[in-house]
Structures are given as structure tokens and as C-alpha cells.
Amino acid sequence: MKKLLVILLALGLVVAFTAPVYAVENIFGGYWRVRAFSQNDFDGNDLGANDLQRTDTRTRLYYTAKFSDNFKFVNKFEMDAVFGDKDSAGYGDIGADGVKFEVKNSYVDFTIDSINAKIGVQGYELGRGFLFSDDFAGAVVTYKGEGFSLPFAWMKAYEGGEGIDANDADVDYYAIAPKFNVDKIAVNPYLLWITSDDYSGWDRLPAGADPLEGGEEADLYYLGVDVNADLGAASVWFTGIYETGDIDEGDIEAYLVALGGSTKVNDITVRGQFFYATGNEADDEDYNAFWVPKGQCYYWSEILGYGIFDTNVNDGCGDQISDIMVFNLGATMKPMDKVTVKLDLWNANLVEDDANGETSLGTEVDVVVTYALLENLKLDLVGAYLFAGDVTTGKVSNDANPYEFGTRLSLSF
Which are the contacts of 375, defined by CB distance < 8 A and separation ≥ 6? Predict the structure, then answer.
């Protein structure tokens, strides 16, 4: 009897300790890359003061604890290093020990009836990235109906701390972005409100001049819509965003429009896009440049718009779209199995004259060749050349055209 009790007790302990394992599905995934590239004459000057040649790596590890189809705990971690990194915290030098371990996302994702909630540090996109595409701390609560969804997002951009009137320094983003389909057309209108009673302590990342500089109180409003249409032989998209609001220094009235599309001609996919974001003249009483204080991220060309090697950028263009007009025509083809070739032509201009009365940023040619080495492993070969416009060459005496080339080995799982 004593042996039987011991056996039963042991079995009970085994069941008790192993039961939680069967109740949780552990899901792992990730992304890894190594890039080697050379960026030259990005300042439009052939002196090479800002030239960069380097190799770097990034690892992202994803872990999700799935309790049920309606309840998940999501985590994403990131580690970055430059080969031969002189930073003592990096892991790219001899010995390789480093402490660069970043928490990218950590949130719960659960659904109760028709309501889905994601609470914690997470990623979010609004307006294709022309308005917001980044990680944030906050919540996204979505009502899902028949053929439509109604998300509401709260993003905490800055916490003022504790003390008398400390909450005045808070900066909050609030967004509502319903999505619905009409036949083969997807429509996504949205409203984003950025508000603060005293933003002076907030570290912003402006594109161009900062209309919030030196002020305190701000209420910015962005009213926009995304439209995607499948026309059978072609697909087209449109984004329009109107910006208004009040700041200490005056009013903001600005807008952005973008459209694009693609179609297949034989075995070649032809695509194009155009976007226009208003700029600001020096004598304007109001601020008329389309501008988002933080969170905007729209990658486009390889040199002017960051692209695959997003370390340097020519003439402050980058992913924050303001005071610019861009035309693009591109093609994608598969000359052989496992090989994809992308060709792009970009022309970019400022909307408003710069200090020298110039607007031309230049015309850029990009080539990306992708080879699928293995099922989840691919190799990109990249080359880009910018025929620099007067905005760049007008600033220097030893003018030169920026160019870059490099390669990226990446793994997704």
C-alpha cells in the first residue's frame, strides 16, 4: 500500500508540473541579416568626408506564448552589432561579448466576443507609414464586425513624470481607423490626434524645420484615407492626408497625397508611385509643411529614401516625408528560377525653394538582384546611383554624384 501511495504521489506531481506545458503553445520565430556596403559622396562632395564602408548584423528573436486562439503573449527582441565595433557595449569586436539586447515588442493580444485588444509595447502602421509606422507603448482595441473593423489606438509618446503639473508635459497620440471592403476595394479612413499641454521636454525627430521649436502647447490633427483597389489586370492605391492644428507659434495647414499601382506585362511586373507633401515658405504666417513629430516612416529609394542600407541618406530626405515631390517607375522580373531583379527610377524635387532658390534633389537609379539560396535564406545585391540635383551640388564646390553598392544575406523563420 505504501509503495502504491508513493507511486500515485509521484504520478500526481508529474501531472501537476507538466500540465501547464500542455496548456501553452510556445511559438518561436525571428529574422537575421548581415549587410556589407559602401556609401560614397552622399553629401554631394567628392572629398569623402562622410563616406562609409562597413559590415553589420541584426538579429531579431520572436517568442509567443499562445494560450488559445483568443489569447497570446507576444515578445520580440533585437540585437545589433557592427563588425569590429569599437563600442564597448557591442558584440562585433574580438571576444564578441556584448550587452546590446533590446526589447522591441512585449504585449498581450486577446479577443473577447467581437473585441480584440493588444496592450503593451507593439508595432503599428497608419497611412502606409506616411503618418505612422513604428513601435510604441500603449494599446490598440479593435471591434470586428461583418466585413469591417474599427480600431482605436492610444500611443504614449512622452511621460511627463511626477510632480505638480507634471501631466502637462505628457504627449499622447490617439487614432481611430475603420477598415471596410466594397467589392474589390478596401477603404481605410483615419483620424490621428497628437496633443500636449507642454511638449518642450519631448525629444522629437522632425523632418526639416520643427514648427514646435520653442513652444509648449500643441494639438495636431491628421485626417486621411487609404484606398486599395484590385482591378483584375492591375492594382492601384491612393493615400490622402490633411493636417491641421494649433501650436504656440501659429496654425498648421498642410497635406500629403500619394498614389501608385502595378500591372503585369508578360512576365514583368511594372509599377509606379507618386507622392507630394507640402512645404513651408519662409514668409508664411502659418506652417504649411506636412510634418509628423515622431513615428512617421516611409522607405522609398535606396539613396534618397534609406532603402536596404538605411544608415546614411542624401540631403535629409529619408523616411520622414515633408516638402517633397517624388515620381517613381519600376519593374520586377524573374530571369530564372530563384532570381528576382528589381529596377527603379526615381525623380525627386523639393516643393519649396531651398536657401539657394533650388528645388531639384536629383534622379536616382536603383538595381536590386535577389537570389533565393535556400528556402528561408536569400542574398540581395544592391547598386544605386544618384544624378544629384542643384539642392545637393549647390552646397559644395567639389560636387559629385552619390552612389552605393552592397550585399545583404538574410534569414526569416
Answer: none
Distance from first CA to last CA of the chain, Å, rounded?
52
Q: Which of 384, 305, 372, 292 is nearest to 340 (CA)?
A: 372
**Global pTM value:** 0.90
* Nearest partner of 345 among 379, 389, 301, 383, judged by Cα: 301
Instruction: Residue 335: count other Cβ atoms within 10 Å of its Cβ.
Output: 9
- For the stretch 9-64, pLDDT in tens is 444 544 444 445 558 999 999 999 999 999 999 888 888 788 999 999 999 999 99
Statement: residue 74 has pLDDT above 60:
yes
18: helix, coil or strand? helix
Residue 4 confidence (pLDDT) = 42
Give the model confidence (pLDDT) of 372-384 as tens digits.
Answer: 999 999 999 999 9
Closest to 215 measured CA to CA, from 255, 246, 170, 193: 246
SS3 call for 293: coil
Backbone angles phi, psi at 323, to 5 degrees: 50, 55
The CA distances from residue 405 to 4, 39, 248, in Å, are 73, 7, 45
Q: Rounded distance, CA 69 to CA 281, Å? A: 53
Give the CA distances from residue 172 to residues 106, 281, 371, in Å, rounded to whole numbers and listed in that order: 20, 29, 43
Q: Residues 6 or more apart from 370 whose CB is under 8 A from it?
A: 339, 340, 341, 342, 378, 379, 380, 381
Residue 343 CA to residue 329 CA, distance in Å, equals: 8
Task: Kindly state the helix (H) or strand (E) to which residue 5 belongs, with its residue range.
Answer: helix 2-23
Residue 249 has pLDDT above 70, yes or no: no
Amino acid identity of residue 126, one-letter, is L
E strand residue ranges, 71-114:
71-82, 102-112
334, three cell numbers = 524573374
Q: Residues 6 or more apart from 404 whose CB is under 8 A from it? A: 37, 38, 39, 40, 42, 302, 303, 309, 382, 383, 384
Q: How far is the C-alpha of 319 from the C-alpha of 300, rounded, in Å? A: 7
How does pLDDT run across 114-138, given as a tens digit for each residue? 999 999 999 999 999 999 999 999 9
